[in-house]
Amino acid sequence: MIKYVRTILFVLLTALGLQDAGARVIKDLFIAMPDSLMPMLDNNARKDLVDICLSGMTTALPNEWDGMSVVQKLTDNFLQLREDSEGIVTTRMALLTHGKDTVVCMVRTLRTPQPASEVQFFNSRWQELNADKLIQMPLPTEFVRDDEKLTEGVLPVEFVEADLQMTERGDATLTFTTNTSANAIVFQWKGKKFVRVKNK
Fold it and tell me: Dihedrals φ, ψ of 131, to 5°?
């Protein structure tokens, strides 16, 4: 009897391990993400959008906010989603390797009409991680050059836009821009966190 129970437990644990390994593809995590993180698209809608994209089509589907949604780009570790309703929301997700763990970096940008971005990090179970441990976000004043400063202070930063991109090799880059300057602040994923590499 004990041997039988051990066999059952081994099969269950193996199945769970395979399920976790299979989920380390961004499309699977996107489909499985909680509706609370993407209330305009339920599980079935996300699956349909992935299927449409993988078929080579660019068809948009209606979302819960009376707008249209389309997956514009999809690889094993990167997804870009565009949603149009009262404003334009662009969501980019990158699957990052963090030692033996998996980290999802999600950047959501809302344009109504000026862009504003939110950067969040999650594990493969969609539990939010502490962003401060994974990136040192730039301060608004870092976007303003000395020659752009006003006598009473610095130019007001009205928005900060973050652009998340990933190469075919799996190199992830986060680029921050703002209305006050043509300068950009660039970060690259270095295995444990995003590291600032240069200014453009």
Answer: -65, -30
pLDDT 10s digit of each residue in the chain, 200 long? 454 434 333 333 333 343 343 347 999 999 999 999 998 899 999 999 999 999 998 889 988 878 899 999 999 999 999 998 777 899 999 999 888 899 999 999 998 777 889 999 999 999 999 999 999 988 767 776 666 565 455 555 666 889 999 998 889 999 998 876 667 899 999 999 999 986 55
- Paired tokens of 43: 């599980």
Q: Which of 136, 81, 134 is nearest to 110 (CA)?
A: 81
Q: pTM of this prediction?
A: 0.80
Buried b (16+ CB within 10 A) or exposed e, 65-98: bebebbbeebbebbbbbbbeeeeebbbbbbbbee
Full strand arrangement of the beta sheet holding 68-74: 61-62, 68-74, 78-84, 88-98, 101-111, 115-123
Residues 38 and 46: beta-carbon distance below 8 Å: yes
Which tokens go with 57?
Answer: 């089509």
80: which residues sit within 8 A by CB, 6+ positions away?
Answer: 71, 72, 73, 74, 90, 91, 92, 93
Q: Give me 23's structure tokens.
A: 């989920």
Q: How far apart are the C-alpha atoms of 172 and 157, rounded to whole Å?
A: 26
